[in-house]
């Protein structure tokens, strides 16, 4: 079953929607609720900055620095992490090391501790405790724009939906600026859709006016219809 949700709502409407979705998710899957939280966070980011969050940010030489998963944290009430994160350096720079390995903690910190924030993106039964369960599918070239600190941000074009997949065992640290590339994407070092297709659980399609959550088989049909992605086997061996 697809869950179709209007995206542009007044503040009170969004609050009420969050309560409704909380009930829906508790009856089905907490990860469905997380997908909708991601959609609302991207909407709030766009309301604040007049554009969707970049998928990744690099330095002037193309070195990957920041992931969208980190950039939306202030919009999912994770300011404790954002205040600690050094956004002038790469995600895995020594200044961020103890955030990467989940060890940073200060006496008197209130839960959630900065290093615990990544659990939002993780699976409770994952053998890789820092591995994200949520990845963006990039189906074509990204748009490059100047960013802060002489960095460069790469965005999914506004003409395309933002597609977030929930996958099992992504092999990607939740802070790492790496996601999933379609056949026409310009990210040769990323895993491809073919690499993760047996692991897809569900997806969310984020458009300017509505958001749609799809379960696995519906996601496969949806991806089959997108140009350049190829068929997704909904019954892997």
From TrEMBL:
The keyword Signal applies. Residues 1-25 form the signal peptide. It holds the Pfam family SBP_bac_10. Residues 32-104 form the DUF1559 domain. Keywords: Signal. InterPro entries: DUF1559. The keyword Signal applies. This is DUF1559 domain-containing protein. It comes from Bremerella cremea. The lineage of its organism: Bacteria, Pseudomonadati, Planctomycetota, Planctomycetia, Pirellulales.
């Amino acid at each position: 079953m697809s869950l179709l949700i209007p995206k542009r709502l007044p503040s009170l409407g969004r609050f009420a929607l969050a309560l409704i979705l909380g009930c829906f998710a508790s009856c089905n899957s907490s990860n469905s609720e997380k997908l909708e939280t991601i959609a609302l966070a991207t909407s709030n980011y766009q309301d604040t900055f007049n554009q969707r969050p970049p998928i990744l940010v690099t330095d002037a030489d193309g070195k990957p620095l920041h992931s969208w998963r980190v950039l939306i944290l202030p919009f999912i009430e994770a300011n404790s992490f954002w205040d600690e994160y050094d956004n002038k350096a790469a995600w895995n720079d020594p200044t961020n090391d103890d955030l990467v390995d989940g060890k940073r903690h200060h006496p008197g910190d209130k839960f959630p501790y900065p290093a615990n924030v990544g659990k939002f993106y993780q699976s409770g039964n994952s053998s890789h405790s820092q591995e994200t369960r949520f990845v963006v599918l990039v189906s074509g070239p990204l748009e490059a724009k100047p960013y802060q600190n002489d960095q460069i941000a790469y965005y999914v074009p506004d003409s395309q939906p933002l597609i977030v997949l929930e996958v099992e065992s992504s092999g990607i640290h939740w802070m790492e600026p790496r996601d999933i590339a379609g056949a026409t994407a310009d990210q040769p070092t990323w895993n491809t859709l073919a690499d993760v297709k047996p692991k897809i659980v569900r997806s969310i399609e984020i458009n300017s006016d509505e958001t749609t959550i799809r379960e696995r088989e519906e996601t496969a049909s949806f991806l089959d219809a997108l140009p350049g992605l190829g068929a997704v086997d909904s019954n892997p061996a």
